[in-house]
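Colleagues,

For the teaching module next term, I've prepared a clean inverse folding example: a structure given as tokens, and then the sequence designed for it. I'd like students to try predicting residues themselves before seeing the answer, so please don't circulate the second half yet.
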């Protein structure tokens, strides 16, 4: 064990410090099991943990999704990881969620060139209409964000809870077999580092275009959490989702949206 109680010395066959060195992160803690890597990292952040401190767990007993939902995090099936982003600003930098979503698509495309990952605003990762991963960003004091990433790697359809079977995916299911968790983590951290170090105030045009190229909602009818229905028109430079409602464009900055076709919700993953 290293340092923190319960933390493992080795992860994926190598000393934990070696992964931290390889990835250029200041500190990493790996656990067999945690309630939630986000909650654990928030405690570290409150004690002064450095920018890009990383926490992983093989399984989570209370994995958290967006909107207070739970996140299935069974042992050996996926990458359940959190990392800390610090910035100079007083408030948590608002573009971090979307930029980490973009980082996840870059990482997945490098790991598995046949994969066509999409971003469902703000930061679900989808493949062929199914959710492969999600990102949960939580403020952790002035200018700090705990970024939690859950990526399904090894599940077969039978491994998901009944409520998820219709809408969840894993890399294995998408034909990307035997991709190790360490490679996924390394690619993701490297892509995230290049996008949020430091987090920009606005997406520059190439970045916004790249987000748009992965935006699975563009042109679709969507309903916001507060019940507004309109046509998704892309992503603004400040990360807002643009939705045309009755001829005017609204900028959605909080909450989530659901794609609807003919009044039927098609883009909600129950329980995640
Ligand atoms: C979502 O799509 O609802 C976000 C899911 C985020 C899940 C990850 S797994 C690692 C980290 N720890 C948590 O408790 N949640 C995030």
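(Answer key — instructors only)
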């Amino acid at each position: 064990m290293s340092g923190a109680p319960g933390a493992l010395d080795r992860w994926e066959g190598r000393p934990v410090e070696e992964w931290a060195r390889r990835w250029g992160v200041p500190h990493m803690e790996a656990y067999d099991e945690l309630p939630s890597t986000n909650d654990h990292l928030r405690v570290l952040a409150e004690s002064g943990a450095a920018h890009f401190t990383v926490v992983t767990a093989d399984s989570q007993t209370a994995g958290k999704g967006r909107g207070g939902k739970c996140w299935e995090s069974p042992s050996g099936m996926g990458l359940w990881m959190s990392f800390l982003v610090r910035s100079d600003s007083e408030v948590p930098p608002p573009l971090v969620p979307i930029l980490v979503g973009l980082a996840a698509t870059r990482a997945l495309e490098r790991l598995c060139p046949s994969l066509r990952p999409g971003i469902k605003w703000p930061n679900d990762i989808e493949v062929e209409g199914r959710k492969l991963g999600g990102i949960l960003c939580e403020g952790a004091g002035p200018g700090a964000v705990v970024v939690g990433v859950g990526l399904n790697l090894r599940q077969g359809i039978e491994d998901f809870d009944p409520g998820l079977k219709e809408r969840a995916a894993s890399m294995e299911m998408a034909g990307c077999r035997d991709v190790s968790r360490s490679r996924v983590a390394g690619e993701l951290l490297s892509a995230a580092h290049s996008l949020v170090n430091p987090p920009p105030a606005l997406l520059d045009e190439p970045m916004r275009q790249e987000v748009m190229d992965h935006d699975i909602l563009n042109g679709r009818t969507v309903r916001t959490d507060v019940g507004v229905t309109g046509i998704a028109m892309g992503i603004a430079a400040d990360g807002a989702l643009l939705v045309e409602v009755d001829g005017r464009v609204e900028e959605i900055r909080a909450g989530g949206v659901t794609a609807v076709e003919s009044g039927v919700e098609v883009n909600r993953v129950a329980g995640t």
